[in-house]
Specification:
Blueprint: E1 16-20, H1 25-36, E2 40-45, H2 48-60, E3 65-69, H3 75-89, E4 94-97, H4 112-140, E5 144-149, H5 163-183, E6 188-195, H6 201-209, H7 218-228, H8 237-248, E7 259-262
Helix pairs in contact: 1-8, 3-4, 4-5
Length: 269
């Protein structure tokens, strides 16, 4: 096996990446690091305004970033995403399944429609993108990297109100491991990142708008969660972006079916 020079290990020049939900929060952190490393990045987004800002920022830095309005839970949208990415950039070498929703809804208030919406976005969406992108990667015959963003909730619950979310993330982790087995024959490596508490606009909105059961003090719950973090702080999107870059690069050349926990040590408690 050839030894790659250290200054080339994280060079993604010539690679094409799709990042779902890649225009803000964790997704933006990932988009930024992959584009900075030389990858051409296609953002799959629900709203185009923020994606356009990210595209313009990338253009000003000499990076190649574009976007396609996509609902990852809709098969036709995902087919279009892959087709347009290939038309724009020529191929697909990296897929980051980051898009997800995390409404906090206590079980007593959780409807079937709520549960289905969360599962469709967080789990069905990962299935659809992985299915169609992996077919494109197999057709290309060059292998590839698939990175699924799970959560520490795929390993241990972090808060009440996240039963549907936790079910979806356990599903993504199980899906990651099994698909890693199947796609290894095509040199497509599939891994996951399990973030802990990350400061993002979506998290702030979710916390402020979440319905709270009687007798539950969310401020105290958050205070208790912070006390569990050995690093005594929440994480930043870039701290997930850097791990995604590691998994997308040759630094992770002997990894598939693995999950990297990035949580400031909270699961230690």
């Amino acid at each position: 096996m050839d030894i790659i020079a250290h200054d080339s290990l994280m060079n993604l020049s010539g690679k094409v990446a799709i990042v779902t939900g890649g225009s803000e929060g964790i997704g933006y952190g990932i988009t930024y690091r992959l584009a900075e490393a030389g990858a051409k990045v296609m953002i799959a987004c629900r709203t185009e305004e923020q994606a356009e800002k990210v595209k313009q920022e990338g253009t000003s830095k000499g990076w190649q970033i574009d976007y396609i309005k996509t609902d990852v839970a809709t098969e036709a949208d995902v087919v279009n995403l892959v087709q347009k990415t290939v038309e724009t950039f020529g191929e697909v070498n990296i897929l980051v399944n980051n898009a997800g929703i995390y409404p906090s809804i206590p079980l007593a208030n959780l409807t079937l429609a709520d549960f289905e919406k969360i599962i469709r976005t967080n789990l069905f969406g990962v299935f659809l993108t992985t299915n169609y992108v992996s077919k494109q990667m197999i057709k290309q015959g060059k292998g590839g990297k698939i990175i699924n963003i799970t959560s520490i909730d795929a390993l241990h619950p972090s808060s009440i109100g996240l039963a549907a979310y936790d079910a979806s993330k356990h599903g993504v982790w199980g899906f990651t491991k099994n698909v890693a087995l199947e796609l290894s024959a095509h040199k497509i490596w599939v891994n996951a990142i399990a973030p802990g508490g990350i400061v993002t606009p979506g998290v702030k909105e979710s916390q402020s708008n979440a319905p709270v059961p009687n007798g539950v003090d969310m401020a105290k719950i958050m205070e208790a969660f912070m006390q569990k973090i050995p690093m005594h702080r929440m994480g930043e999107p870039d701290e997930i972006g850097k791990v995604a870059l590691f998994l997308a690069s040759d630094m992770s050349s002997y990894m598939t079916g693995s999950q990297i926990v990035v949580d400031g040590g909270v699961l230690l408690s």
